[in-house]
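Case study 2.
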Amino acid sequence: MTGPLLKVDGLKKVYARGLVQKRETFRLEAEFEFAEPKVVCVMGPNGSGKTTLFELITGSNQPTSGEVLCSGQNIHKVKYKKRDRVAIHYHQSYQVRHFSKRLPSFMLESPVTDYPNIHLFDEPQFSTQDGYIGFMLDFFKKLRAEGRLVFLCVHPQEPFHIDIVRSICEEFLFVLNGQVTKAANYDEFLQIEGVRNYLGKLAAPQS
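Prediction:
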């Protein structure tokens, strides 16, 4: 394995409508990397591009340009049925997202890892029933302790959601209008333009 656990390099996804004259309807752009195991929080309004970003990282969505390098390997060049050995996307109810096929699998590479180093949880449901939140947090911590990179895409609706991400997440990504901004901690996250407006009353004062 070479390179950081995840490098999103000049990534761009453009959606357009129209058969003759194409009209751009949405654009996602991202550039960041994580060299070491972490638990990373991802937030942003509905429709801002969070799920699209996750799909691009796991290879189920083809970028317009740029690369997603997982443990040094371009995820979009990995055999379709083996991409979940590199990065895996759990969407809400924890079903695994499927991949769209653009090339025959024999033209693609085998994964460099046997078990995914990148786990992306898309709006996990933090139930308040006894023990459930603790169980999930222990699971995320276990993955991180094993050397994995864990993403939690959270749409906070209650103060305890903020408490959870502040207690477990080491870095933050904010997605707004297709632009991805990285912050090293929660206080820095609050300084990103649009974050306080997004969080509203849930935005805790800076420590």
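The longest strand covers residues 6-17.
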